[in-house]
Write a structure and sequence with these properties.
Order of helices and strands: HHHHHEHEHEEHEHEHHEH
CATH architecture of the largest domain: 3-Layer(aba) Sandwich
Strand content: 15-25%
Largest sheet: 7 strands, mixed
Oligomer: single chain
Low-confidence stretches: 1-7
Mean pLDDT: 90
CATH class of the largest domain: Alpha Beta
Number of strands: 7
Distance between the termini: 65 Å
Structural class: alpha/beta
Strand order of the largest sheet: 3-2-1-4-5-7-6
Helix content: 40-55%
CATH topology of the largest domain: Rossmann fold
CATH superfamily of the largest domain: Vaccinia Virus protein VP39
Length: 286
């Protein structure tokens, strides 16, 4: 099974890679991923994957693993899908989650944002009259006329490897929130090179959100990271993977559902107390 991708540094692509036995190369790739972070252009990477078949365009190579993740994702978001909500799916990919949301409640409307290449596929694969697909990089999307009740980022913010762009994307969505808006992030936030997409931890996110007037109201996680690493690109069937996944999730919650999770679950709401204090300070200065 394929667990680790080859590292693309210049010396590795040269003669050294060519002369090493396969097992040695696999071990070296693993060690390099533990300690070397490659900050490639994530925008180009995701644009290039848009036309891959099925869920492979946005998730992993094992579609049975992807199916299990989507089932868990549905379980996570279901309590948030209330009547008549205006919802932003930032980084909607090919529209699978957006379609899932509108099928869960016939009164909600969703704006799905992603690169043009992803949106073209979303309109073909997951069209729906209550989904409005918008072509835009996540960090560039802002509409002063839009205010959302629920904002969901599932593996969007964390995939923006340029941290300043990541922060900009988060700031922008906070500006499109209402008084009672919930911002839900289901994201692989990490600092460790081996797991990091963007080198930005959940602590960094919580700190940033606090500075933007939002408080953390719920924290958990999904996908026990050793299980995800081993099986996401395997060739195992759904029937074999499903019980393994359930066991790994029980172990995850026993060890610490946030710490050991690949994908962190973070729920934020506006910090009313902080906003009141800021308004008082502003009035005093005036």
């Amino acid at each position: 099974m394929t667990i680790f991708k080859s590292h693309d540094s210049k010396w590795w692509k040269g003669k050294i890679k060519a002369i090493l036995p396969t097992k040695v190369k696999t071990i070296l790739c693993f060690l390099m991923r533990l300690f070397i972070y490659e900050n490639y252009n994530s925008s180009l990477y995701w644009r290039s994957r848009a036309k891959e078949p099925g869920q492979k365009s946005v998730l992993w190579q094992n579609e049975n693993f992807n199916r299990i993740f989507r089932e868990k994702q549905k379980e996570i978001i279901l309590p948030y899908i209330k009547d008549n909500l205006s919802i932003l799916d930032i980084g909607c990919g090919t529209g699978y989650l957006a379609k899932m949301i509108v099928e869960l409640n016939e009164s909600v409307f969703v704006d799905g944002i992603d690169f043009e290449e992803m949106i073209e596929e979303a309109k073909i694969r997951n069209p729906h009259p209550r989904i409005n697909y918008i072509s835009s990089p996540a960090e560039e999307y802002f509409d002063e006329n839009k205010k959302y009740d629920l904002i969901i980022s599932s593996a969007c913010f964390s995939m923006i490897r340029d941290v300043e762009k990541l922060k900009k994307a988060i700031r922008n969505v906070t500006l499109m929130s209402k008084k009672n808006t919930i911002i839900l992030m289901i994201e692989p936030f990490h600092k460790w090179c081996f797991l990091a997409r963007a080198k930005f931890s959940s602590k960094d996110v919580i700190k940033l959100m606090k500075s933007l007037g939002f408080r953390l109201t719920y924290k958990s996680g999904v996908l026990f990271w050793p299980f995800r690493v081993i099986y996401c690109n395997s060739n195992l069937s759904y029937d074999i993977l499903k019980p393994k996944f359930e066991k790994s999730e029980r172990l995850l919650h026993f060890l610490g559902s946030h710490l050991w999770a690949d994908y962190k679950i973070l729920e934020f709401r506006k910090d009313v107390c902080q906003n009141i204090k800021q308004n008082i300070k502003k009035e005093d200065s005036d």
